[in-house]
Write a structure and sequence with these properties.
Helix content is 20%, strand content 31%. It is of the alpha+beta class. It has two domains: 15-192, 2-Layer Sandwich (D-amino Acid Aminotransferase, Chain A, domain 1); 196-276, Nucleic acid-binding proteins (OB fold (Dihydrolipoamide Acetyltransferase, E2P), Beta Barrel). The strands form three sheets. The protein has a five-stranded mixed β-sheet with strand order 1-10-9-2-8. A hairpin with a 4-residue loop joins β3 (48-52) and β4. The protein is globular and about 60 Å long. The termini are far apart.
């Protein structure tokens, strides 16, 4: 019996530490009819979301990250939320750094960019002030609070979005400074970014899982790669209605999808289905 207990303990301890997906405050998408004068705006950093629970660093899905102790030694004993970020255009490199299961020096090439203090009561502006106060007394090479700008007019928001795009930034995040921390999609946090669209050919249907069991999960599509004269294949699972999942675009159909720039591999970032092209021609 004792041997069985010891074996069970060894088995549990040998497994990667994981908690359930975290319940976080998530943004909605900005629309022109939303009044945001008096809100705060910041760059939407192209990183990996991180959650510091006061002792350890987790992904939004509850997976434990493994940074070296020096990376987290100046973080506070209270929770923080932010992006693990290595600079603009470094998303894939950041992912390769944080996914490793043992500490390594690659972490010293990124920073924890903080945008909220989730368990602090009160308004967003007050929560962020707590983080600023901490780092004013405990400065860290590997963490900073994301700067916020006041929105005084809509033209300022458009100008800032344009400036971010010129710098190859992903877009903006705007926040209601008086908002409390709430779980789930919140109208008090909005992401602002322009998207592009293009066409792709459907080459396969990938079956769904979970709530999409028994119908389409995603489309496997391809687009021409002008650099190599070959085709690039990737999946599109977002933007599809229930009707489209039950009766998906046929193989060989040309669809229009939206996306937000490209990965270095040439695959479009965050592709989402829009419609089937009626003229059935793929733009080259």
């Amino acid at each position: 019996m004792i041997k069985k207990v010891l074996l069970l303990c060894l088995l549990i301890c040998s497994q990667p530490l994981h908690i359930h997906a975290l319940e976080l405050m998530l943004p909605q998408v900005y629309q022109d009819n939303i009044h945001v004068i008096g809100w705060l705006m910041s760059e939407k950093l192209d990183g990996v979301r991180g959650y510091w629970n006061g002792k350890q660093l987790f992904s939004k899905n509850g997976h434990l990250f493994h940074p070296p102790p020096a990376f987290t030694q100046d973080l506070p004993p209270f929770p923080l939320e932010g992006e693990l970020w290595g600079g603009r255009g470094t998303f894939e490199k950041t992912v390769s750094i944080v996914k490793k299961q043992t500490p390594h020096d690659g972490w010293f090439e990124i920073q924890f960019a903080i945008f909220d203090v989730p368990q602090e009561p009160g308004k967003f502006s007050a929560r962020l002030k707590k983080a600023k106060n901490w780092f004013s007394y405990h400065p860290s090479r590997f963490a900073f609070v994301i700067p916020q700008k006041n929105i005084t007019e809509i033209s300022q928001l458009r100008d800032e979005l344009h400036r971010m795009e010129q710098l190859s930034g992903e877009g903006l995040i705007i926040r209601n400074p008086d908002a409390l921390y709430t779980i789930g999609r919140s109208s008090d946090i909005l992401k602002v970014k322009n998207f592009y669209d293009m066409e792709a050919e459907v080459v396969a249907h990938i079956p769904g899982k979970g709530k999409h069991q028994g119908r389409l999960g995603s489309l496997l599509v391809e687009i021409p790669d002008k650099k190599t004269n070959n085709n690039i294949r990737f999946k599109i699972g977002g933007g599809l209605s229930d009707a489209e999942r039950n009766n998906p675009p046929p193989i060989g159909a040309i669809i229009t999808f939206k996306y937000y720039g490209f990965y270095t591999s040439g695959i479009p970032r965050f592709p989402s289905f829009i419609r089937i092209r009626t003229d059935n021609s793929l733009s080259r």
